[in-house]
Amino acid sequence: MQDIRIEAAETVSLFCRLNQRVKKELPIRSSEMGLLILLVTSEEPLSSVEAAQFFQVSKPVITAMVKSLTAKGYLGKEPRAHDRRSFLLVPEPKAVELVHTTCSEYLYTMTLLQEHMGREAFGEMIRLLAQANAVIQKEEDRKNG
User: Fold this and answer.
1) What pTM was estimated for this model as a whole?
2) What is the DSSP code string of the chain?
3) So what's the architecture of 22-106 in CATH?
4) Where are the domains of the chain?
């Protein structure tokens, strides 16, 4: 009898591959699109540090995305009033337009799952994934001290 963990690893791996394979006709990388969606939909402007905390990545990861998005005309930086060394990330009109016109395409897989699984099953899947992420994150935090 096959170990359930092997089947689980194969299932999760296939899910990730299928989700990554969805062709997204975007002029920027998916990770950059995720950052733009966060910035455009946030009620308050965010700094690179706050974006890094949200995505649970290092600040240099966000800094690289900000540099790329700034060069492409999607982001601007505005100094904070209380600390002019710190900057807020400000989406340019080009970013707002991109998010509004492509957000449904970017979220296609999640929309497909929600429609075909039903709201309740989809919500349960998201709840379980969030729980799994929390377990893995806690272990990562423990290992990294």
Assistant:
1) 0.74
2) ---HHHHHHHHHHHHHHHHHHS----SS-HHHHHHHHHHHH-SS-EEHHHHHHHHT--HHHHHHHHHHHHHTTSEEEEE-SS-TTSEEEEE-HHHHHHHHHHHHHHTHHHHHHHHHH-HHHHHHHHHHHHHHHHHHHHHHHHHT-
3) Orthogonal Bundle (1.10)
4) 22-106, 118-145
